[in-house]
């Protein structure tokens, strides 16, 4: 059976525990990944400690050149990586390429790191005194990542952490571990020194070892909220810098003046694309007014029926299977729950079978109307191809829904009214806002991060927030006395008498 091991310097110890890698397209097991422990982490940390000082001392443009070469290598291997990713995750190839591409954009940002690492300088802060600051790496950092973006999220963290001079240890999701290992190989090929980008695989045992390890200064986590909160608390208690991004329940507000054809097009992609397994998916739509709701529903139903579900290599498919049988059962459980809670089940995606792939983890697109805020299925993240319609009577009610929700990752408003959009963006209590943009993931030179239970810690991912997270600022106050005896002639060229 195919086995994925840790990506370490100095050989890989034999593992005694493993996790199955499932085949979402066909069901069943396609391989296994080694689950590491503290001893594996100690080996990674020792290699990181050995390599990091020289890497940090290298001038920043040389580290940037590694990022340039890495970017070129990933582009060269794009097809191979996308197929590897789709085979374990289940998302269609075009989506896998998007996953890799969005990560590469952060690598591209890191190619300009000499510029962003520049410090600040004040000349003459006092008599003969200058003050300056410099950004220095933390030493060793770790990243713990979810299954749903196995290329993008490791690159959000790993590219920024390493380019500024840290050694980075990645603990990816055990569900789709192959791409992270391949990225580590490509980093080495691009010239990153051994020990600067390593991968350890594992479950809670490895996560706890990372959180408790005294040599690891910072931990960046992305995953579900309860675990994000746990990671944040345990890491901070151990004196580390921690950022922990959590789950989401993003709302799309549809104003009465919105272009409904555009909304339907955007919504079907944002609610059902990647089988809804995106933290920036739009699983809740909020039409403002019953007329808007009825008009939207009338257009949405045929658009949903027209969606094609297929295996991840089917280039015609809009989306593929969900990641595991357990996740499929969980999503179908939420569909039942939402129906039991009294919502109108307009389209039921349960029981969907793809011919020739009957054991695959497919779920048909599902639409609910008349979902209300007291329902558990509204309060919690479903993370599947399920769209819940919550009707709002007016703009004020619409803005209050995402603002009061426990999650605050992303939100979108669809309107032709600039004032309403501006008001919404300024007042809504959510971290990332789209105006006529359904999945507002900021570009790499801005930063990514949600609010409330979608993000614990002070800094966002990538962009300048990422640079801040992965560096510490040293402040230098320097006084250079004139050295000229009584100080009156310090700048006169000495003469020979
Ligand atoms: P998850 O929380 O199950 O796993 C995330 C990581 O935590 C994995 O590496 C996993 O091995 C580890 N882990 C699992 N159980 C653990 C435990 N008990 N203790 C310590 N570590 C543990 O998340 P997932 O199912 O892989 O990913 C989906 C979730 O991630 C969704 O909730 C989604 O919204 C969220 N997500 C959030 C963002 C964001 O930026 N806010 C981005 C992507 C995904």
Automatic annotation (TrEMBL):
The Aldehyde dehydrogenase domain, residue ranges: 17-476
Classification via InterPro entries: Ald_DH/histidinol_DH (IPR016161), Ald_DH_C (IPR016163), Ald_DH_N (IPR016162), Aldehyde_DH_dom (IPR015590), MeMal-semiAld_DH (IPR010061)
EC number: 1.2.1.27
Highest taxon listed in the record's lineage: Bacteria
One of the record's GO molecular function terms: methylmalonate-semialdehyde dehydrogenase (acylating, NAD) activity
Keywords on record: NAD, Oxidoreductase
GO BP term, example: L-valine catabolic process
Identification of the protein by name: methylmalonate-semialdehyde dehydrogenase (CoA acylating)
Source species: Sphingorhabdus pulchriflava
Encoding gene, per UniProt annotation: mmsA
């Amino acid at each position: 059976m195919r086995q994925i091991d840790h990506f370490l310097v100095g050989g890989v110890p034999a593992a005694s525990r493993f996790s199955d890698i499932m085949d979402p397209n066909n069901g069943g097991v396609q391989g296994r990944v080694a689950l590491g422990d503290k001893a594996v982490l100690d080996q990674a940390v020792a290699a990181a400690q050995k390599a990091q000082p020289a890497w940090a001392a290298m001038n920043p443009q040389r580290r940037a050149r590694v990022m340039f070469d890495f970017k070129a290598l990933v582009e060269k291997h794009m097809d191979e990586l996308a197929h590897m990713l789709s085979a374990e995750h289940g998302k269609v190839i075009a989506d896998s390429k998007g996953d890799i591409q969005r990560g590469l954009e952060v690598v591209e940002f890191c190619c300009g790191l000499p510029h962003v690492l520049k410090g600040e300088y004040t000349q003459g802060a006092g008599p003969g005194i200058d003050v300056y600051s410099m950004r220095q790496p933390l030493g060793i950092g770790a990243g713990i990542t979810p299954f749903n973006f196995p290329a993008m999220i490791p690159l959000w963290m790993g590219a920024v952490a390493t380019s500024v001079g840290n050694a980075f240890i990645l603990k990816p999701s055990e569900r789709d571990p192959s791409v992270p290992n391949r990225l580590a190989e490509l980093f080495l090929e691009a010239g990153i020194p051994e020990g600067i980008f390593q991968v350890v695989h594992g479950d809670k045992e490895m996560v706890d070892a990372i959180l408790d390890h005294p040599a690891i200064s910072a931990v960046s986590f992305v995953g579900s909220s309860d675990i994000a909160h746990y990671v944040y608390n345990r890491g901070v208690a151990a004196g580390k810098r921690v950022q922990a991004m959590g789950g989401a329940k993003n709302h799309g507000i549809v104003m009465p003046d919105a272009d409904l054809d555009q909304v339907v097009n955007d919504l079907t992609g944002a609610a059902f694309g990647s089988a809804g397994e995106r933290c920036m998916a739009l699983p809740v739509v909020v039409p403002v007014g019953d007329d808007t709701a009825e008009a939207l529903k009338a257009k949405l139903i045929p658009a949903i029926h027209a969606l094609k579900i297929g295996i991840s290599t089917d280039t015609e498919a809009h989306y593929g299977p969900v990641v595991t049988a357990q996740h499929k059962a969980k999503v179908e459980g939420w569909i039942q729950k939402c129906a039991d809670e009294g919502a109108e089940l307009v389209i039921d995606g349960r029981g969907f079978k793809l011919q020739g792939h009957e054991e695959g983890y497919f779920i048909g697109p599902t639409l609910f109307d008349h979902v209300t805020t007291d329902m558990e299925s509204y309060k919690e993240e479903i993370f599947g191809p399920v769209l819940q319609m919550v009707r709002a009577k007016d703009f004020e009610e619409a803005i209050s829904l995402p603002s009061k929700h426990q999650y605050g990752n992303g939100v979108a408003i669809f309107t032709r009214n600039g004032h309403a959009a501006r008001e919404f963006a300024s007042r809504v209590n959510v971290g990332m806002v789209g105006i006529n943009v359904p999945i507002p993931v900021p570009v790499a030179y801005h930063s990514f991060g949600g609010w409330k239970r979608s993000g614990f810690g002070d800094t966002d991912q990538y962009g300048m927030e990422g640079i801040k997270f992965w560096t510490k600022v040293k402040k230098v106050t320097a006084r250079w006395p004139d050295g000229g005896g009584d100080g009156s002639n310090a700048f006169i060229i000495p003469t020979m008498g």
